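name: query_chain
kind: protein
chains: 1
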Amino acid sequence: MNRTKIHYHKDKKDLIKSYYFALIPVLLFGIYKNGILLYQTELLNLKSIFIPIYFYIISIIIPIIISKITKTNYHENIILSLICVSSISVNTNIYIYPLLLFVLLFILNYLQDKLPNHLNKTAIVRLFLILSLFINSYSYLNIGEKLNKFNYNLFDIFIGHGLGGLANTSTLILLFSFIILSFNRFYKKIIPIMASLTYLVFSSILILITKDYSYLETIMCGYPYFAFIFIAGDIYSSPYDKKGMIIYGIIIGFFTSIFCLFIKYEGVYISIFLASILIPFINKITLKKYLHN
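structure:
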């Protein structure tokens, strides 16, 4: 029994380490896109370069404080926070964000044993964090994008210069992050693969139907794939068998292609949350043969 428990904690710790490594290039790109690049084009002063770094530091300090209070694993809380902060807008209120993150993490940790395991907690926290954006204005444009200083083509958007969160816009970098995570045998890579393929297929169909080719920019940008890679395949709130993961990924990809038409940047998190509600039903179907044994 003890050996099993030790083995489980060791494996979980190893997976968390993989998430840290996979997030490093993503976070560094966020500093470049929303700090250094804008400073180089004289759109920000030197002090403003550190805004992304401020959000990152806050997203490390608060989880540690919460973990001390609630006596929970601070590594899991930090990973959750860093994933969420990567996808928030650069216009997020710097004062409301830490307060809101503290409250959300505290509630989440306090209710940890009371909430159903299949609900995707990261998606829930990310959706509520939008409240810290409404204090300012609902916009994902940095100062350069607001002033229309950049004229990017689809390849530029692919490498990360499109619209999106603080650090989740580079599809190219996310491919490297996915490779890093895929080396860990406990990472559920089937889910982001199926979610991405389904999203691309249905989004392409929508483009052909609506003739709105500007939507190509959306499917080239990294923010939906970031959520597929770092949130959808959560070790706890996702199916455990291969068939269930495939169905779950397809549902997420389909929902995202629809919701992103109306709620561009939050649609993917709504999709993941709704799909996580369906997990008991998915498990009931895919594990039916085992239940009858």
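note: Residues 200 and 219 are 7 Å apart (CA to CA).
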